[in-house]
């Protein structure tokens, strides 16, 4: 969110007191500095008009952050701006020290495995889209969350490509220092996947030299696939070596190699380059099916796989295109793409299906009796079966079905006679009820084509079915049959109840998650590979347009979890749950795919556009790249924008390129500029964990900061429907919804407080910190439904002072008059106060009520500090500068490294968290022990009580640091004054090793009491 710029001020304050004070520094939240547009032709788009037309809330946020787009395709434009709104609404402020994360759902979910409803499976998409925001903090915080912070322990809960996306983000920001500092964490994340790595994988009875990563379909974010349904675990699926996870690890290894090269670490660069090369070879050698021309899963030896173990699947799933999203396959594997545009395979009007509609069962691979095998260049796989001419002749196929039912089977044949021929189809040895299959004449023997087919309805049982084609009347040759009983099996609800009861089947529906991956792969194929004949840029344009068309509901832009690819109807669309589902990409696909903006590590900008050849114009403006601002505009004859003809590229308002044609272009650009670091602001009112616990019906473990109100609406807002569960009634407009870190303005999902129904002339909404806190800014975002809940007539901010509520002095309100949700936040600034509670008192409009979607209180983040022991005069650090969880805290000789720097930030219930600047992890106690002498260490923030500390003024410029969990003081083992002595907790016995001086990390004036 946007904050008012502050003057440059340095405040030396009492850090070691009963309340933790912080330095007030200059700066906003990481936005690129504004650039002067000196060339009057640099700007062609009316951004205010665009924002108004798209009815985007908080328009200033978009002005400050997004690249603006204008194309001849209104659907693409509408969805582009809509998807920025879904990205914004999924940004969640968590707590000080962690900052922002991106979520998938609009509500908390119980299976995230991480705090704050963050999931790693779509984190790559969040980072790829988020890299195009000018405020780098949003994606930067989120990346740190996974690599160093509270999300680190759950980063492996699903397959992820965080490392690849982190490198791609660097290509946009140009911030080499940031990506190099992340290298140890990226390597650590890579190594955490070692337990999923096997050597010498066996495929179809042949042991290979392939070393691959394995994963379950569920942990690959794809439950209820055909791969799953063939195993004994339909939901989780049979564990195997999958194209997805191995492509992700390939791209991670490549990224690490490139970052290590930036660092001058040749050994690491070579090591990970070799890992990438090995994975590429293994994927191509073992996961590629040469008959089906596709990348498949190979089942491993898990018991759920039974007789499937060490076999390659024989059905094509959309995940087989994942390797191209990371430029893994060599060019000769491009033949896989012919199935994407085949309506009998993956093609659908509203985007590709997650499973091919039919599989091929080749006649030459079936069981045959008294029939002969022949070759033909027109036959599928080059062979067919003929001379099925005798009473004992037959060809028997085995077709599996997920359940009893009648399924279509298409027979591909040749009939060289002049009349109709037949076969008797005997299903599961039911000779009493054969099915007659009739074959019209095809004009010749030994010649086959797609049109030479007939479809019959075949009753099948669950499991394996035998389909025996026996001699009927006259004669026919068999090339193959095609069928897939698994396609859409149990996937589409008969009636949409918006309860997500059928979710989530990835055996047919059109899924934005994988559509995004396919579009990324297709763009790479078209932009980076040699020319091929399987897909064209028109195919990319068509699929992107279909994807945009899909993302609508009731005539407005919309996205949920998945849709019927044939009708475009959203089928997984849980009420108060799936709306605006942030689990895919779109905007990065437009920028890098359609417009062809390909970020580079060097001082160039590469364009490889895939736009329709008939487009006479398009523009993208306010595009951040390497710390500069770019405009890219195509106007064939100059008549559309009236700002010059052809392709023009502007850098910081100055034209650097003009050409008469739109083609692949490489432009030299200015060297990267990294914005000067600015002090971040902390929202000390946020409490997302309590909101999650309330939503999920769990015990509230973190009551403070605690939202409260004088009156709250008592009428339910309707049900909420978690994925795969029945709907449950909501709570009401609970005050805690207004401090959950999400800013949204819609009734569904329920994310607000209102005083609807209140008899009071005024009502208030406030926050109890549970301990004194410093604040100098309050923000609230009003909820206004245009009917009974309206923007307040007026308001004032109050704080608790000596047990009484008083108005905050010298309030500066911006804007002066309260504004509703279609404008921007209502911001109140004032001289710093210390208080345990504040509230906003609202006076509603006559006959109306007031609503708030988020209430915040901000204060500058603590600068990095050093923590110096009084007894030894040594600094607190982590052994070996480790970034690993469990790294021992110890005292060390003073130095200027990040390992000796700490951030002390406000946490729940009046306590603080102490973050190591080098690792991003928090100071805690081993095993959360309450025993004297237990060692202090660093750990990913798992929200346990041993990660919470009181900082108590001990006088003379020193503090005591007291662990919440044990009540013991941080000290040094045996009061040692030696470098490397272990930090421990101990009963506070007044010794000097329990005293700590907290000083500014830059060596300037220390904080004192």
Structure in a nutshell:
By secondary structure, this protein is an alpha+beta fold. The chain contains 14 helices and 56 strands.
What do these coordinates show?
The chain is α+β, with helices and mostly antiparallel strands and 1009 residues long. Strands 34, 35, 38, 39, 40, 41, 42, 43 and 44 form a 9-stranded antiparallel sheet that branches. A 5-stranded antiparallel sheet has the order 1-29-30-31-32. Strands 13-16-21-18-19 form a 5-stranded antiparallel sheet, with no helix packed on it. Strand 18 and strand 19 (435-439) form a beta hairpin.
Topology:
Blueprint: H1 47-53, H2 59-65, E1 68-70, H3 74-90, E2 91-93, E3 100-102, H4 123-130, H5 137-147, H6 162-173, H7 176-191, E4 197-198, E5 202-203, E6 206-207, E7 212-215, H8 226-230, E8 240-241, H9 243-262, H10 266-287, E9 288-289, E10 294-295, E11 298-299, E12 359-362, E13 367-369, E14 372-375, E15 383-386, E16 394-401, E17 405-414, E18 421-427, E19 435-439, E20 453-460, E21 463-471, E22 477-483, H11 512-528, H12 537-550, E23 552-553, E24 556-557, E25 562-563, E26 570-572, H13 587-594, E27 597-598, E28 604-607, E29 617-625, E30 628-635, E31 646-651, E32 654-659, E33 665-668, E34 681-683, H14 688-695, E35 706-709, E36 719-720, E37 728-729, E38 753-754, E39 763-782, E40 794-801, E41 804-807, E42 812-814, E43 826-843, E44 851-860, E45 865-869, E46 875-878, E47 889-892, E48 902-906, E49 912-916, E50 922-925, E51 936-939, E52 949-955, E53 958-963, E54 969-972, E55 983-986, E56 996-1000
Antiparallel strand pairs: 1-29, 2-3, 4-7, 5-6, 7-8, 8-11, 9-10, 12-22, 13-16, 14-15, 16-21, 17-20, 17-22, 18-19, 18-21, 23-24, 25-26, 27-28, 28-33, 29-30, 30-31, 31-32, 34-44, 35-39, 36-37, 38-44, 39-43, 39-44, 40-41, 40-43, 42-43, 45-56, 46-47, 48-49, 50-51, 52-53, 54-55
């Amino acid at each position: 969110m946007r904050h008012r710029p502050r003057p440059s001020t340095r405040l030396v304050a009492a850090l070691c007191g009963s309340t933790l004070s912080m330095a007030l520094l200059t700066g906003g939240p990481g936005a690129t500095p504004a650039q002067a547009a000196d060339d009057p032709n640099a700007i062609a788009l009316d951004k205010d008009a665009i924002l108004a037309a798209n009815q985007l809330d908080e328009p200033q946020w978009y002005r400050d952050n997004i690249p603006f787009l204008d194309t001849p395709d209104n659907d693409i434009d509408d969805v582009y701006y809509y998807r920025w709104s879904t990205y914004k609404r999924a940004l969640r402020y968590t707590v000080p020290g962690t900052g922002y994360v991106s979520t998938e759902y609009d509500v908390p979910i119980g299976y995230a495995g991480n705090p704050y409803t963050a999931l790693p499976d779509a984190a790559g998409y969040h980072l790829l889209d988020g890299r195009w925001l000018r405020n780098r903090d949003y994606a930067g915080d989120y990346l740190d969350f996974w690599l160093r912070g509270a999300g680190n322990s759950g980063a492996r809960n699903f397959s992820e490509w965080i490392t690849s996306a982190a490198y791609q983000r660097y290509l946009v920001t140009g911030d080499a220092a940031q990506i190099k500092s992340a290298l140890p964490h990226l390597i650590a994340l890579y190594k955490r996947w070692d337990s999923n790595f096997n050597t010498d994988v066996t495929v179809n009875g042949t042991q290979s030299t392939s070393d691959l990563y394995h994963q379950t379909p569920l942990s690959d974010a794809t439950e209820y696939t055909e791969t799953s349904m063939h195993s004994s675990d339909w939901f989780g699926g049979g564990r195997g070596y999958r194209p997805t996870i191995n492509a992700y690890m390939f791209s991670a290894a490549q990224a690490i190699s490139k970052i290590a090269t930036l660092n001058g670490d040749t050994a690491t660069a070579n090591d990970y380059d070799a890992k990438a090369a090995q994975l590429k070879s293994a994927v191509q050698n073992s996961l590629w099916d040469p008959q089906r021309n596709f990348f498949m899963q190979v089942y491993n030896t898990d018991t759920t796989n039974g007789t499937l173990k060490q076999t390659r699947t024989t059905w094509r799933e959309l995940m087989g295109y994942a390797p191209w999203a990371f430029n893994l396959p060599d060019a000769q594997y491009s033949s896989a793409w012919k199935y994407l545009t085949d309506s009998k395979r993956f093609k659908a009007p509203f985007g590709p299906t997650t499973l091919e509609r039919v599989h091929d069962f080749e006649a030459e691979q079936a069981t045959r009796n008294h029939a002969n095998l022949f070759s033909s260049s027109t036959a599928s796989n080059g062979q067919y079966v003929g001379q099925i001419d005798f009473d004992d002749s037959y060809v028997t196929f085995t077709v599996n079905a997920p359940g009893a039912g009648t399924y279509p089977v298409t027979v591909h044949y040749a009939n060289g006679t002049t009349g109709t021929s037949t076969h008797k189809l005997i299903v599961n040895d039911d000779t009493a009820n054969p099915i007659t299959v009739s074959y019209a004449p095809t004009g010749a023997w030994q010649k086959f084509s797609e049109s030479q087919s007939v479809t019959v309805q075949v009753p099948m049982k669950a499991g394996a079915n035998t389909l025996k084609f026996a001699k009927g009347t006259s004669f026919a040759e068999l090339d193959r049959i095609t069928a897939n009983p698994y396609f859409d099996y149990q996937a589409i609800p008969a009636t949409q109840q918006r309860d997500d009861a059928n979710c989530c089947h990835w055996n047919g529906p059109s899924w934005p998650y994988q559509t995004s991956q396919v579009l990324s792969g297709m763009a790479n194929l078209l932009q980076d590979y040699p020319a091929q004949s399987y897909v064209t840029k028109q195919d990319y344009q068509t699929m992107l347009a279909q994807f945009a068309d899909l993302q609508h509901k009731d005539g407005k832009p919309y996205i949920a979890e998945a849709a019927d690819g044939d009708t475009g109807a959203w089928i997984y669309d849980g009420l108060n749950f799936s709306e605006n589902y942030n689990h895919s990409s779109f905007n990065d696909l437009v920028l890098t795919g359609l417009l062809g903006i390909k970020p580079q590590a060097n001082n160039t900008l590469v364009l490889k556009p895939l736009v329709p050849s008939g487009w006479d114009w398009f523009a993208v403006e306010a595009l951040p790249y390497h710390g500069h601002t770019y405009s890219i505009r195509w106007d064939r004859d100059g008549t559309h924008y009236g700002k010059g003809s052809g392709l023009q590229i502007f850098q910081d308002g100055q034209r650097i390129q003009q050409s008469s044609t739109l083609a692949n272009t490489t432009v030299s650009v200015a060297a990267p500029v990294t914005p000067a670091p600015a002090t971040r602001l902390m929202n000390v009112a946020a409490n997302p964990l309590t909101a999650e616990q309330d939503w999920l019906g769990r015990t509230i473990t973190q009551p403070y900061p605690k939202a409260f109100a004088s009156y709250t609406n008592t009428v339910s807002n309707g049900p909420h429907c978690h994925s795969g569960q029945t709907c449950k009634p909501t709570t009401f407009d609970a005050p805690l919804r207004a401090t959950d870190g999400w800013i949204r303005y819609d009734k569904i999902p329920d994310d607000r407080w209102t005083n609807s129904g209140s008899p009071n002339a005024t009502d208030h909404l406030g926050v109890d910190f549970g301990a004194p806190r410093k604040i100098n800014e309050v923000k609230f975002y009003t909820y206004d439904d245009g009917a009974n809940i309206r923007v307040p007539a007026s308001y004032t901010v109050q704080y608790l002072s000596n047990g009484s509520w008083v108005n905050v002095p010298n309030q500066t309100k911006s804007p002066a008059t309260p504004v509703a949700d279609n404008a921007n936040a209502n911001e109140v600034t004032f001289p710093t106060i210390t208080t345990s509670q504040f509230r906003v008192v609202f006076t509603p409009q006559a006959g109306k009520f007031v609503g708030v979607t988020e209430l915040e209180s901000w204060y500058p983040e603590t600068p990095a500090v050093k923590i110096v022991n009084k007894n030894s005069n040594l600094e607190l650090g982590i052994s070996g500068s480790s970034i690993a969880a469990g790294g021992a805290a110890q005292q060390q000789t003073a130095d200027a490294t990040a390992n000796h720097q700490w951030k002390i930030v406000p946490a729940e219930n009046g306590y603080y968290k102490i973050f190591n600047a080098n690792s991003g992890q928090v100071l805690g106690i081993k095993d959360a022990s309450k025993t004297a002498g237990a060692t202090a260490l660093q750990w990913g923030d798992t929200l346990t009580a041993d990660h919470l500390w009181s900082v108590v003024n001990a006088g003379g410029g020193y503090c005591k640091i007291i662990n919440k969990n044990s009540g013991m003081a941080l000290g040094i083992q045996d009061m040692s004054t030696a470098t490397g002595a272990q930090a421990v907790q101990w009963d506070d016995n007044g010794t000097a090793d329990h005293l700590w001086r907290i000083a500014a990390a830059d060596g300037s004036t220390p904080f004192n009491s």
